[in-house]
Amino acid sequence: MSQPIVFGAAYSVYVRTVRLTLAEKNVPHRLVEVDVFSEGGPPPDYLLRHPFGRIPAFEHDGFQIYETDAIVRYIDETFDGPSLIPDTPRGRARMTQAMRILDCYAYPSMVWGVYVEQVDAPQEGGETNSVRLDEAIRRSRTCLGALERLMDGGPFLFGYTPCLADLHAAPMFAYFRLAPMGRQLLDEQPRLKSWLKHMLARPSIAAIDDAGS
């Protein structure tokens, strides 16, 4: 069985999610850097892997796939190691619910709305858009509250073992906490704050960082 290949940028939230999933399953992989923000857009040959020009894309033993949810579920079902999908219908439903919250609401507001406005924009010589930031803060607070209410008491989002929702969330929260308002909003949700500290200490985080992310 050949080594999986992840195509995308090391800094990408969704590339990191795929790589964290591989690390949690103890699967070595290769990262092929793809800059979708380069002048002229993604390289033409990359569009053969992902016709919408997003990242990541994935290849394993000649099988090519894109879309993060599909990739991580393939990884979990294909490789040995602890399952990253809950074993009950309700557990799987909660995991999927959390992942949709993260994709549809948290990522745009927490990463693009708070982190980018408060951290990236100033670092790149731009100015924070206060109107956009205020709206992102409001939506981020709603996202954090919704996710904290779904937690069931364990150190992970849904119990005592990590699932795909934890790996989906961790890269988003890692960026979010770098913004002053991100840290302030996390202080309002102590269980999520504790969860993030627990996640950032996992060996899988160190594994992808050591691999050049």
Explain this structure to me?
Helix content is 56%, strand content 7%. By secondary structure, it is of the alpha+beta class. It has a 4-stranded mixed beta sheet, covered by helices on one side. A hairpin with a 2-residue loop joins strand 3 and strand 4. Helix 1 (13-24) crosses helix 8 (203-210). The radius of gyration is 17 Å and the shape is globular. The mean pLDDT is 94.
State mean pLDDT (0 to 100 scale): 94
Structural class: alpha+beta
What's the helix-strand series?
EHEEEHHHHHHH
Taken from the alpha-carbon principal axes, the silhouette is globular
Distance between the termini: 25 Å
Strand content: 5-15%
Tally of helical segments = 8
The Cα radius of gyration reads 17 Å
Helix content: 55-70%
The count of DSSP E runs of length 2 or more, i.e. the number of strands, is 4
Low-pLDDT segments: none
Side by side, the strands of the main sheet go 2-1-3-4
Largest sheet: 4 strands, mixed
How would you sum up this structure in a few lines?
56% of the residues lie in helices and 7% in strands.
Question: Tags for this entry?
Answer:
four-stranded mixed beta sheet, single chain
Layout of strands and helices, then pairs:
Blueprint: E1 5-7, H1 13-24, E2 30-32, E3 57-60, E4 63-66, H2 68-78, H3 89-123, H4 130-150, H5 164-176, H6 180-187, H7 190-200, H8 203-210
Parallel strand pairs: 1-2
Antiparallel strand pairs: 1-3, 3-4
